[in-house]
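>> received
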Amino acid sequence: MPERGATTDGEQARSTAGGPNRGHSNWSERVSRVVDDRPSATATTVRRHLPRPRGRVRATMPPMPRQRLIRGRVTMVASLATLVGLAATAAPVVAHGPVPSEAPTASSLLLAWSFEPLPTIGTAVAVGWWLWAVRRVNAAHPVNPVSGRRTVAFLAGMAAIAFALVSGIERYDTSLFSIHMVQHVLLMLVAAPLLALAGPITLVLRLSSSETRHRWLLPALHSRVVRFMAHPVTAWVMFAAMMWAVHFSPLFDASLEDPIVHDIEHLLFLTGALLFWWPAVALDPAPWRMGHPARIGYLFTQMTQNTFLAVVILNATSTLYPHYASVVRPWGMSALEDQRLAAGIMWIVGDAVFLTAILAVVVGWMRSETRDEARADRRAEAELAQIRIRERRLAERLADERGEGGG
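>> returned
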């Protein structure tokens, strides 16, 4: 009785014989011949024509030499390593997207719109809602309609967002750091203050019913989370920390390689900028209010840190981001020159925006002082008129008393 799993001498002889089924048992050969001769036979017919084999039968293969086995494993590992290396090399190229074949021009930046679905639909929905809300509020309050300047500011802010995300700028943002910087400037220093000037919170409060306003909106506006996030110190630190952390961390380079991370970065920039400009513009109701001097200091210190960040990037002696260093462009300046141009854009445009905002706060402060003086003058005139009326009444009463005494 042969051991379990072993083959008989006859089977070994047949397995070593030549033929197309070398290395297989005689029963396996007979199965192959029946199936080949009768391809339409069912499994039941095949089993009826074949005798049941004696003993346990297993197919055997000659053992592979140890050297061939080791060589095969080494080859497999080398192949896998090669594939991983190619994938790692090709991934940034795919994430880069196609590098435009021509350098950016005014026409390509202004006219080559991509109309990505998410930002395009979001911008269209926001604009449609704003126009509908303004029409509703104006119909309900014809004596006190929404100012046209606020609508212009909102539409301009949404246009800045659309220009940053779906125009020709989006086509070059992963190829040129300077174009990417223009994108960030549009989101944080143009769109955000314009949206704050539009006063969207005021419009929502005016549009909602009294029950909704007192039950949901005002409690949310004065909740602990909103009070913390909208505090001027929190908003200032968040804005500055976000700028430094993004530009000097792997997040910036990751955003250039992954479109999802890039979209998250834009969302963070826009949200942080809206929180920063909310107390600076001070048109919407907020949990915290700053006076004009505090707002000037708030903006001036932020301008200072923005300038310092731009100077640090400008004075860098090497390319800060491997993404832009690895992009091969048949046109344009070098990666280091492009980086210095981006720093210059951050510096000049940032200072211009912050100085304009500071000047606007100063003008608003002067107008507020003028209004306060006029209000104080009117109050003083009213008090003086009341004093004169009392003096006249007192004089008349004294005259009456003297007349009665003389009579």
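>> The chain has two domains: 1-62, 97-383.
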